[in-house]
Amino acid sequence: MSTVDSSRRTVLKAAAAAAAGAGLSAVGAPAAAAASENGIRIAILLYDGITALDAVGPYEVLSRVPGAEVVMVGKKAGPVRTDTGVLGLVADRALRDVPRADVLLVPGAGNRGVIAAMEDPAITGWVERVHRHTTWTTSVCTGALILGAAGLLRGVPATTYWASKTYLATTFGAVITPGRFVESGKIITAAGVSAGIDMSLRLASLLTDDHTAQALQLAVEYDPQPPFDTGSPEKAGPELQALALQLLADSAT
Q1: Which residues are catalytic?
Q2: Secondary structure element (H or E) that encloses residue 235, with its range
Q3: Which neighbouring-strand residues pair with 70?
Q4: Nearest one of 105, 94, 95, 97 to 68, comparing CA atoms
Q5: Contact between residue 164 and residue 182 where contact means Cβ atoms under 8 Å apart
Q6: DSSP 8-state class, residue 163
Q7: Domains along the sequence of the chain with CATH
Q8: CA-based radius of gyration for the chain
Q9: Fewest Cβ atoms nearer than 10 Å: which of 96, 135, 143, 145?
């Protein structure tokens, strides 16, 4: 362990001790013990062109669920480029090496990435097979289109990125439902990009309990207070909708 890592851990431990001394309760031990015994395995799919926050946002929450193991999975092990082509993420396992998971999370992507993934039988076939044995199958943003391509959303209440809702309904038969995330049986779909954090906190509560999930929200200090109120298409209006899509297109490789 590096000196920096050691110092950071020392600071965090000291802060936790100070909080406990001030009368603040720690994360619930019974839930943590139960999760550890269950050995929750969470698989996050990586593929060329994914949107980084779709995967990394939920990872920041789920990697801290007591007893959980998060594995990044790709068609093959190794680096994967995100939609801008600048940032790379690393798949630690290949699809063939992860036949099962307790939780499956499918991030979204821009047009290039999501269309390629939807049309790739290796990816959609793996998603469908893993889904058979999951406790929870989840998606973020246009990751719902990949669930749809795997045949999982026909007649299922779901959501996705605002500009893709009509496509999800007409192409894959999903029942578009409002909300930052939508639960239907064991499937949870999140709206665009940042909504994956909201969904992952809900998922954390399902895997442990509300008390633990609330502590995880504090751990990542997720307390959004954006400077603008244009985070949904209804609030933003047509002009900003068009500009948002143009900005996405311009930033994609």
Answers
A1: 141
A2: helix 233-236
A3: 42
A4: 105
A5: no
A6: G
A7: 28-221+230-251 (3.40.50.880)
A8: 19
A9: 96
